[in-house]
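Anyone up for a design puzzle?
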């Protein structure tokens, strides 16, 4: 089965659901999820930059979604409601030329306090993932993932900070 010549634009509304294509998207989304988790296990999220535009994306998120609290569990129904989709679409389109794969499907944890799991994970466009995870990382909400695997470093860091403050 052919989708047309190489490099041809595929119109989603004219394309049947091809099982192999869906599987490839799923594999890519799971690879992205696994890679991101592995990075968070190796370094604190608060020290991580996901894109070269992290600061701009974070400020844009705060401006366009002032009610968004990165500490809270995401309400998927609200996010994917007609109004929610319109707001997020407008937000994401600001990055269509500057963030690669900005609209590619990606797995997102609904809460920064959980690991990826069947009930704690939703499927979102990559730009939503970036915006939300950049905010979580900015606030140190993902640092627990690194600290869980490096408990002695966290204690040493806390001891060093206590000594500095005592001086």
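Challenge accepted. My sequence:
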């Amino acid at each position: 089965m052919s989708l047309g010549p190489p490099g041809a634009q595929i119109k989603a509304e004219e394309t049947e659901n091809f099982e192999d294509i869906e599987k490839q998207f799923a594999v890519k989304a799971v690879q992205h999820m696994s890679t991101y988790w592995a990075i968070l296990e190796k370094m604190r999220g608060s020290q991580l930059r996901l894109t070269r535009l992290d600061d701009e994306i974070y400020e844009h998120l705060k401006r366009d979604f002032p009610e968004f609290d990165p500490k809270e569990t995401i309400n998927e129904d609200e996010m994917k409601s007609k109004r929610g989709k319109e707001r997020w679409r407008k937000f994401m389109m600001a990055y269509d030329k500057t963030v690669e794969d900005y609209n590619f499907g990606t797995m997102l944890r609904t809460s920064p306090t959980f690991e990826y799991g069947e009930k704690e994970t939703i499927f979102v466009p990559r730009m939503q993932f970036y915006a939300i995870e950049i905010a979580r990382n900015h606030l140190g909400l993902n640092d627990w993932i690194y600290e869980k695997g490096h408990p002695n470093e966290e204690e040493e860091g806390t001891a060093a900070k206590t000594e500095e403050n005592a001086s």
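A detail worth pointing out: The longest strand covers residues 105-109.
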